Structures are given as structure tokens and as C-alpha cells.
């Protein structure tokens, strides 16, 4: 009888301890499409360039600053289409490239040479926005 | 002398009437219980039969059956007639006390064994159900993790983390708590059941000793299965 009782207690303790809540909500940041994603950057800054645009007569009509980013497509599932989205204080929101284009260039128009321009880059997937990466570069000629 | 002759004759008639005038009558005994009763006739003969033929006149009977009380009665046998004797032997006081003890024993067994065992089995079933819910709630959380890893919509991910997963975590905690309470109740009832069974196992089933049989057997001497014999002892004190 005693053995059966100890066996029952052991089974109950084993059953109680076999399932735990190991889903840490704060640690749930591994999906690259999560706005709280905390892993290798999905959107990487490649480089920037500044150019004076001339008209047909050779007169300067605008100064533009370009930022090129690269999307780590290998981190994202093949099951969905995505695109890169950039938002800046000066130029508002723009979407660059086509679906699933990994290398995308965004252009800031009417820039002032020597000034720093920042863009908030993010992936758009299924009509919603993933984590935002902010990259800044100087419009140096 | 002459007056003595009629008196002698009348005495002779009376004696011869007594010697030769007695006739037999029959008694048909209808006794409850029918198969196991015995009786002692006229304080001398132990018998066990359903019909007896006796000379007319009153005869004393002591009836007895296992578990029943002895009944003493005198029955008048009428010459040339068959008389039915219907009698129901009452249960003896010892047997009624034994029945009460058996009932108490059964009641004790029900309260000390059957009832706690049923409670324990019920609580174990309840614990099993709660364990199933607990496991299911855990599986839901596992599914949530998988769904998070495979989610393709940032909005959906945000919604999962803000509402769905916290709700499932709360349900898991509730299921876990319910299971622990049920397991505790089961353990407690199992312990109490084990204690009560252990305690009740010390009490033995009541034993019935038919004291009426002893008294009935003592009414007449009868040889046992191996016959009977008289023994006598003679002692000489050699020291004197």
C-alpha cells in the first residue's frame, strides 16, 4: 500500500513538472518580420551617393542624394512577397524596387550638399510593416 | 369381601383401558425452516422427521433449527387422527445480534473502503481530465510558438504577441493550477483511503456461535459420529 502511495505521489509530481510555460513573450523576437525583431539586420545599408542633375543645356537643375540598401532575403520565408518601404522627414513615404527586390536605391531630391539625410527603412509584407531600420548619410559632393 | 370384588373389577377395567385402550395419532410437522429443524420429544428422544406417530395424549416437544431459538410446546395427540402442527421458529437473540454485527461490518466496509475508493477513483478521473486540459493548453502554447516562427504578416505577429499569446498563457496557468489542485485532492483522498483501508483491515468479519444449538444439544444425550462410551476413573491415595 505504501509503495502504491509513493508511486502515486511520484507520478503526480512528474506529471506536474512535465509541462512548463517556456514561451517567453519578451524573448519572442526571432521572426524577421516581427516589428520587435532582434537579430541580424534584415535591411543593410550598402552606400550613398550625391549627384547634380543637369538639363540638356548642361545647366544644373537639381542635387539628389541616393541611399542603397540590401535586403537579407535569405532570412525571410519564401512563402510571402515583400517590398522595401522608406520614410523620411523631408520626402515622406516611398516604396522602392519591385516585389522581393533585394537591392533597392532610394533618392532624396533637392538636397543641400553637406547635409545629412536619414531614411527609415522597413519591409512591407501582407500590407503591414516590419521592423524599422534608420540609416543616415551625408550628401557630400 | 363382597364389596371388594366390584372395586377390583373396576380397577382392572381402568388398568386394561390404560394398557390396551390407547391408540395412536399422527402429527404432521410443518416447521419453518423446513429442512433443518430438529426436535426433542418428551425430553428424551432427539428426532428430525416431518411426521411422527405417537400414542394419544399430550406430548412435549422442543423444536430448534440453526440460527433459530428453541420453542417448547406441548401437543395433544388425538387417537386415529392426523394433526398438522404449523410453527415458525423465531430467530435467536444471538443470531439477531450477529446480523446486526454483520450489518455494522458491511456499513463500516462501505464507509471505510467503498466510499473512499469511489471518491479516490472519481478524483483520479477528474485529475485525468484536468491533466488533459493542462496538456492541451501546453500544446496550444507550442502551436503559438510555431505560428510565430512561421508568421508572414507583421500585423499578425503584433496581434499574436499583444492578445492571443497572453490569453493562451493565462489559460495555461489556469489549467496548470486546476491540475495541481486536482492532483492534490487525488493524493489526499488516496492517502485517506489507504489509511481507512488499513484501519478497517484490522476488523474481522463477525463470527456466529449458535448458543441455542449448544443448549439444544444439551437437552438429551446422543452419541457422536464415532459412537459414545462411558468412562469412570478410580483413584487410590497410596500415601496413606
Explain the overall architecture.
The complex is a heterodimer of chains A (141) and B (240). Chain A is mainly beta. Chain A has one helix at residues 2-18, and strands spanning 43-54, 60-71, 82-88, 92-96, 103-108, 116-125, 128-138. In chain B, helix 2 packs antiparallel against helix 3. In chain B, 54% of the residues lie in helices and 18% in strands. Chain B is α+β, with helices and mostly antiparallel strands. Chain A binds chain B through residues 1-2, 4-5, 8-9, 12, 15-16, 19-21, 23, 25, 28, 30-31, 33-36, 77, 79-80, 123, 125-130, and chain B through 127, 131, 134-135, 138, 141-142, 144-145, 148-158, 161, 165-166, 169, 172-173, 176, 179-180, 183, 186-187, 190-191, 194, 197-198.
Order of helices and strands of chain B: HEEEEEEEHHH
- What is the CA–CA distance across the termini of chain A? 90 Å
If you compute it from the alpha carbons, what radius of gyration of chain A comes out, rounded to the nearest whole angstrom? Answer: 25 Å
Main interface pair? Answer: A-B, 31 and 37 residues
Strand order of the largest sheet of chain B: 3-2-5-6
Mean of residue pLDDT values of chain B:
86
> Strand pairing plus helix content of chain A: what structural class?
mainly beta
Structural class of chain B: alpha+beta
The coarse silhouette of chain B is elongated
Count helical runs of chain A: 1
* Multimerization state: heterodimer
- The residue ranges of chain B in which pLDDT falls below 50 over 5 or more consecutive positions are 6-17
Q: Main beta sheet of chain B: strand number and arrangement? A: 4 strands, antiparallel
What is the general shape of chain A? rod-shaped
Amino acid at each position: 500500500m505504501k509503495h502504491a502511495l509513493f508511486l502515486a505521489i511520484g507520478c503526480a509530481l512528474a506529471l506536474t513538472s512535465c509541462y512548463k510555460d517556456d514561451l517567453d513573450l519578451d524573448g519572442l523576437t526571432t521572426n524577421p518580420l516581427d516589428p520587435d525583431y532582434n537579430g541580424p539586420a534584415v535591411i543593410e545599408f550598402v552606400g550613398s551617393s550625391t549627384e547634380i542633375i543637369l538639363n540638356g543645356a548642361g545647366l544644373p537643375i537639381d542635387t539628389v542624394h541616393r541611399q542603397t540598401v540590401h535586403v537579407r532575403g535569405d532570412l525571410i520565408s519564401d512563402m510571402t512577397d515583400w517590398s522595401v518601404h522608406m520614410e523620411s522627414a523631408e520626402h515622406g513615404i516611398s516604396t522602392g524596387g519591385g516585389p522581393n527586390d533585394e537591392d533597392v536605391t532610394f533618392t532624396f531630391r533637392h538636397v543641400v550638399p553637406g547635409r545629412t539625410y536619414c531614411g527609415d527603412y522597413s519591409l512591407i509584407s501582407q500590407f503591414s510593416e516590419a521592423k524599422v531600420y534608420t540609416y543616415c548619410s551625408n550628401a557630400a559632393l | 369381601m363382597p364389596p371388594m370384588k366390584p372395586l377390583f373389577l373396576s380397577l382392572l377395567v381402568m388398568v386394561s383401558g390404560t394398557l390396551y385402550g390407547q391408540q395412536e395419532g399422527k402429527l404432521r410437522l410443518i416447521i419453518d425452516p423446513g429442512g433443518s429443524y430438529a426436535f426433542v420429544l418428551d425430553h428424551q428422544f432427539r428426532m428430525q422427521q416431518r411426521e411422527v406417530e405417537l400414542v394419544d395424549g399430550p406430548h412435549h416437544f422442543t423444536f430448534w433449527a440453526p440460527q433459530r431459538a428453541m420453542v417448547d410446546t406441548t401437543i395433544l395427540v388425538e387417537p386415529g387422527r392426523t394433526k398438522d402442527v404449523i410453527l415458525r421458529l423465531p430467530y435467536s437473540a444471538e443470531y439477531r445480534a450477529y446480523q446486526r454485527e454483520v450489518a455494522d461490518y458491511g456499513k463500516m466496509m462501505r464507509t471505510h473502503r467503498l466510499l473512499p475508493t469511489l471518491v479516490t477513483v472519481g478524483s483520479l478521473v477528474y485529475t485525468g481530465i484536468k491533466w488533459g486540459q493542462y496538456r492541451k493548453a501546453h500544446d496550444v502554447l507550442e502551436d503559438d510558438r510555431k505560428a510565430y516562427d512561421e508568421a508572414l504578416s507583421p500585423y499578425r505577429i503584433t496581434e499574436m504577441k499583444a492578445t492571443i499569446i497572453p490569453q493562451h498563457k493565462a489559460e495555461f496557468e489556469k489549467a496548470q493550477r486546476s491540475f495541481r489542485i486536482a492532483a492534490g485532492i487525488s493524493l489526499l483522498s488516496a492517502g485517506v483511503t489507504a489509511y481507512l483501508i488499513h484501519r478497517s483491515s484490522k476488523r474481522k468479519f463477525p463470527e456466529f456461535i449458535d448458543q441455542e444449538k449448544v443448549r439444544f444439544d444439551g437437552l438429551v444425550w446422543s452419541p457422536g459420529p464415532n459412537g459414545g462410551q462411558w468412562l469412570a476413573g478410580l483413584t487410590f491415595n497410596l500415601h496413606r
